[in-house]
Amino acid sequence: xxxxxxxxxxxxxxxxxxxxxxxxxxxxxxxxxxxxxxxxxxxxxxxxxxxxxxxxxxxxxxxxxxxxxxxxxxxxxxxxxxxxxxxxxxxxxxxxxxxxxxxxxxxxxxxxxxxxxxxxxxxxxxxxxxxxxxxxxxxxxxxxxxxxxxxxxxxxxxxxxxxxxxxxxxxxxxxxxxxxxxxxxxxxxxxxxxxxxxxxxxxxxxxxxxxxxxxxxxxxxxxxxxxxxxxxxxxxxxxxxxxxxxx
Length: 247
Description:
7 strands; single chain; four-stranded antiparallel beta sheet; three-stranded antiparallel beta sheet
């Protein structure tokens, strides 16, 4: 993420407080509220309660991420260095096409199944017009997701300060923050590719979503002067990951 997790904490807390306020209004002015909006009062109060609980969970998670980020920026990093704009452009030339190819594959799969499934259903007797509209909607959402993904990738590659701080719980790279020491997330691997100049650090972690585990690969250039500490940090991370899996 490019924004400060504390901002997400404040938003989540504000949403939670608003939801709790609505629950309080429901409890204090129940009869008046029911007279004004009927049975919707019960449904809205239940929804507000669920939102309040979810907001507190989200706020707690982002608070944890904010602490990880603050510690990395202070003194908790295993390694830290700064890449120059030229080194960052070199990595972008290598990594950019890889990321773009991944996005194209994802879009292709979405379009393929968005067309295939409605076609099969139409052949089995479904309403062709309705199915075509559904397919078009899914394709449109896929294109929107592709556009947003490309925009996000460009923002990630845009040079800001080139600073990298790698720790056991997260990574700050060029102003972007990645954290994996929260519920539902875990570090998968850390690799230092020294076959390229500059070397490229790749850190892979997953986080849990409604669609299952989602994988993220964070990348950073490693200048020659920082190779020794980067190697030591990667070894420490890989050892920590292995012990966590076997423990």
